[in-house]
Amino acid sequence: MPDEAFDVVNRGFSRQAFHYDSADQANVILQDLRRQVYTHVERFLKPGSRILEINAGTGIDALYFASKGHHVHATDLSDGMIAQIKRKAAFPEAQGRFTYQQLSFEALDQTTETGFDYVFSNFGGLNCTDDLRKVTRHLPPLLKNDARLTWVIMPPICPVELLGIFKGRWKDAFRRLHPDGAIAHVEGEYFKTYYYSVSDVRKALGKNFHLLKAEGLAALSPQPHSHALPQKHPQFYKGLRKIDSVVRTIYPFNRWADHIIVTFQFSTDKS
Asked: Which CATH number fits domain 3-156+182-266: 3.40.50.150, 3.90.1150.10, 3.40.50.1000, 3.40.50.1260?
């Protein structure tokens, strides 16, 4: 990403950092999705793991995993997000297991720590890069053999968005399929985002990474921006989440969703 693009992303997410936690806690959908991500990760996370978190945001996830006995090195580009991370790293539940570094996902070779058991990135932060290989090329030297990687990333096809064609929202319904990415906006700043399939992630990671599991996140249930729905129609929302829990691990809904959760295992043996 050019320097000016990094500056735009930094400004947008720095402004968002001041109110992100309160908005997160008030959003029932986002809370449900975050719990789903944790359940997925904890199937593969070994006790006392060393975790590298990419795009750590305000440190919500880093603090959660540190409180569970893991050591987390949280990285993020944004000045505002790093300020919030620094505050959380001093919380009692972090207990010295929470470190941080202001760092772009395209400069992971500059991380101050190595020897990680796990790499984690949540809620589409990596969709800001135009080429995942700019991230993945730095990973192998940082990882232990048998390390795991879980990324929550936005794929090209989202069934809930495609339903927009029935409301005449053609542009929004197919925005993820544009080959040159789509324009996103955060706090008045506009920048491009790019959408990646499981196959795209696999190719970017290379032969040293083996896919363990993929599941859809909000495959058929509402996206976080529909935050009022659970309050207005609680039974309807509950029913959609129940349907989602059944289909999200089944093809194509483990590939088509608002986000997908993908977990890979790293091995130094290329065979």
From this structure: 3.40.50.150
